[in-house]
DNA sequence: AAAGTATCCAACCGCCTACAC
DNA sequence: GGTGTAGGCGGTTGGATACTT
């Protein structure tokens, strides 16, 4: 039996997403929420397959995604988790809430794999191969253990968390507002698809145009060319602006951008927008696929449980240390 | 400056699983 | 229980960019 394609491939567009497509998708998701991807191309008129829409959202448009360089801590976490879980990128990504599985996978394939390979062919080959043996032995044990214990452990940790909630740095919360986000602003790529902040610039520009055209109404499509121009001019300035906001979908509605047929009936300042985001972040992101950070097991606790309880008792802490120390930065 | 090579990463492909009927 | 479908996942590709010669 041959599986039919997820959608009719004929007439479906492929390749990089355009700003307009992104806005249409974001606008649709703000109205309907993520999910039911099959209906997205039909309802939005996007000539994209449902999978493509889902991927674009989860890997790029979804709020809370951190882009740019991986920190040392993130890097060591990936190495540790990959050693324990294998190439289960989605599982690994669940412990790095701001990173997508695709990002982690790419980072592993392009950076970490090479680093580890370099290490393995290094001078301390003997020690490395010893660690590799330990790793191959421990992986199965740990997978089993993880399967059986992870739920219990998480429950316990969540209970502990509910007693003393850690202060979550706003810069690390699931809500990503890219103003002052150095990692985002670092990206100086000129291609549209490589920069999330372009979406915010786009929307910001669109808002500006909305105000400008309030008296003489025009459709989003009509003002789109101006918006692109505004985004481009912002982009060329090079320095990040405090007004660059990565907009979750529902925000767009608040500002009046509903669909191609909607009127531009509201306009608010960016400060107001930030306040709105702060006030509504719990609502805005509650149904995202990524876990809420408040319900996410903190990495330090997870690591502690993972490595102290297991590795130490099995005399394997050297493996992890060896791996993390071996990663030259 | 131009050509060749390496690297990065967004997006696609195909397989698998869960679920509805 | 069997079948069809949607969504999720990991592997891979290809275009763009960066770097080297």
Notable characteristics:
DNA binding, 329 residues, 59% helix, Myb_TF_plants, SANT/Myb, single chain, mainly alpha, DNA-binding
Give the overall silhouette. elongated
**Major beta-sheet overview:** none
What is the helix fraction of residues, given as a range? 55-70%
Poorly predicted runs of 5 or more residues: 1-5, 123-191, 205-299, 305-329
- Assembly type of the shown chains? single chain
What percentage of amino acids are in beta strands?
Answer: under 5%
Domain HTH myb-type: 9-65, 66-116
Domain Myb-like: 9-61, 62-112
Subcellular location: Nucleus
GO molecular function, one term: DNA binding
Topology of this protein?
Layout: H1 19-32, H2 39-44, H3 50-61, H4 72-85, H5 89-93, H6 101-120, H7 125-163, H8 182-186, H9 197-212, H10 220-237, H11 249-254, H12 270-284, H13 299-312, H14 317-326
Helix pairs in contact: 9-10, 13-14
This protein binds a DNA duplex (21 and 21 nucleotides) through residues 1, 3-4, 6, 14-17, 35-38, 49-52, 54-56, 58-60, 87-90, 101-103, 105-107, 109-111, 189-191, 193-194.
Structural commentary:
With 329 residues, this protein is an all-alpha fold. The protein has 14 helices and no strands. It is elongated, with a radius of gyration of 23 Å. The model is unreliable at 1-5, 123-191, 205-299 and 305-329 (pLDDT under 50). One of its GO terms (molecular function) is DNA binding. Residues 168-181 have a biased composition (Polar residues). Keywords: DNA-binding, Nucleus, Repeat.
């Amino acid at each position: 039996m041959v599986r039919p394609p997820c959608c009719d491939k004929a007439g479906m567009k492929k390749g990089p997403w355009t700003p307009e497509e992104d806005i249409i998708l974001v606008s649709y998701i703000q109205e309907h929420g993520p999910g039911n991807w099959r209906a997205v191309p039909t309802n939005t008129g996007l000539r994209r397959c449902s999978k493509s829409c889902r991927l674009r959202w989860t890997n790029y448009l979804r709020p809370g995604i951190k882009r740019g360089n991986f920190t040392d801590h993130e890097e060591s976490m990936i190495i540790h988790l990959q050693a324990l879980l294998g190439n289960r990128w989605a599982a690994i990504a669940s412990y790095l809430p701001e990173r997508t599985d695709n990002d982690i996978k790419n980072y592993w394939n392009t950076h970490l794999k090479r680093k580890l390979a370099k290490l393995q062919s290094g001078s301390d080959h003997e020690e490395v191969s010893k660690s590799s043996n330990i790793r191959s032995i421990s992986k199965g044990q740990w997978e089993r253990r993880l399967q059986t214990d992870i739920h219990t452990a998480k429950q316990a940790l969540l209970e502990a968390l509910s007693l003393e909630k850690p202060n979550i740095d706003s810069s690390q919360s699931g809500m990503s507002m890219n103003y002052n986000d150095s990692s985002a602003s670092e990206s100086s790529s000129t291609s549209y698809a490589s920069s999330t902040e372009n979406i915010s610039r786009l929307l910001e520009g669109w808002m500006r145009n909305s105000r400008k055209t309030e008296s003489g109404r025009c459709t989003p499509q009509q003002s789109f060319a101006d918006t692109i121009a505004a985004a481009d001019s912002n982009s060329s300035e090079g320095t990040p602006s405090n007004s660059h906001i990565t907009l979750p979908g529902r925000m767009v509605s608040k500002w009046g951008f509903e669909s191609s047929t909607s009127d531009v009936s509201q306009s608010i300042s960016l400060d107001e927008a930030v306040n709105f985001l702060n006030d509504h972040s719990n609502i805005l992101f509650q149904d995202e696929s990524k876990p809420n950070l408040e319900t996410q097991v903190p990495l330090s606790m997870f690591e502690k449980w993972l490595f102290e309880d297991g590795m130490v008792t099995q005399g394997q802490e050297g493996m992890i240390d060896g791996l993390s120390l071996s990663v030259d930065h």
